[in-house]
User: Which sequence fits this backbone?
């Protein structure tokens, strides 16, 4: 598990995570593509957002290095991304069950009580 707010180094990458304060723009943040172009990937800076279930209100979001995202657990930022690029990165995702991912899929209420958004930055 990876604790939100603690930086960690994996190979050449520094990974930073932070819970996002409640915002009306969370839906747009969540959909923002992690890799907009090959140039942004080559620059060594990747930022994306992950919707994470909370075990209880005000608990810390639980993150993991999934190795590979499952279909249901894939963050929107990584939809339709190149799997070859994805497989070379130390990606961070939500530590959640399939049932929790299904619940998160269309949820729009309960921010900070049942789920939150976490910003993930990979920097070389």
Assistant:
């Amino acid at each position: 598990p990876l604790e939100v707010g603690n930086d960690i180094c994996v190979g050449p990458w520094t990974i930073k995570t932070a819970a996002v304060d409640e915002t009306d723009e969370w839906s747009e943040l969540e959909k923002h593509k992690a890799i907009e172009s090959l140039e942004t990937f080559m620059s060594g800076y990747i930022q994306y957002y992950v919707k994470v279930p909370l075990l209880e209100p005000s608990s810390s979001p639980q993150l993991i290095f999934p190795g590979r995202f499952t279909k249901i657990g894939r963050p929107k930022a990584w939809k339709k991304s190149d799997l070859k690029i994805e497989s070379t990165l130390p990606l961070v995702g939500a530590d959640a069950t399939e049932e929790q991912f299904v619940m998160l899929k269309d949820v729009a209420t309960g921010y900070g009580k049942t789920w939150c958004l976490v910003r993930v930055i990979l920097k070389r």
